[in-house]
Amino acid sequence: MKKIKISPSILSADFSELGKEIKRLDEAGADLIHVDVMDGHFVPNLTIGPPVIKALRKFTNIPFDVHLMISPVHKYIKDFADAGSDIITIHPETTDNLDSSINHIKDMKKKVGISLNPDKPISLIKNYLKDINLVLIMSVYPGFGGQKFIPEVVNKISELDNIRKTNNFKFEIEVDGGIDFTNSKEVINAGANILVSGTTIFKENNGDLKKNIETLKKI
Fold first, then answer.
1. Residue 36 annotated among the catalytic residues of the structure
2. Which of 25, 77, 135, 147 could form a disulfide bond with 140, CB atoms 3.0-4.6 angstroms apart?
């Protein structure tokens, strides 16, 4: 049975207590910490930058799964790597040269992720799948937490999983957007092995982080 990882999105955490929130996630068994970085340009929201990630790094040894929703992205990769990111995920349309940006992340000794919005086809990144560690499938249009899951992306997850199996590629499949107890099993069965969730983890069962993480992992 494949190992399912949960990457709680701190976008839904209490921003006045982020350090404590990350410690709570650590104690609750989170596998990764998902950090949504938005620039108010590529997506219609502003969140956090490298100084905050650097400040939070001391609260846990869990890998920071950093999703850069910023354009242009290339010139900021080093800043986020130096701040303590472990996985750096970018969108193809935010860089003039995806090969160069992938290699830049690798040069920083970080894992490489590529993200696809719901309307972007797998063909956009097919030539890069052998060279990266992770594909992040967005199941909402990025910008804000608490959105409803777009069910059509399940077919994209299955297609990507088939490509992975056929070619014996090693990348992980991560899904982000509206993940909750009603759709997590379907997403996992389609081929995902990392689930990003914010609202469900922080709000369900009176904020019982451990219970919510364990429930999302069940197949």
1. yes
2. 147
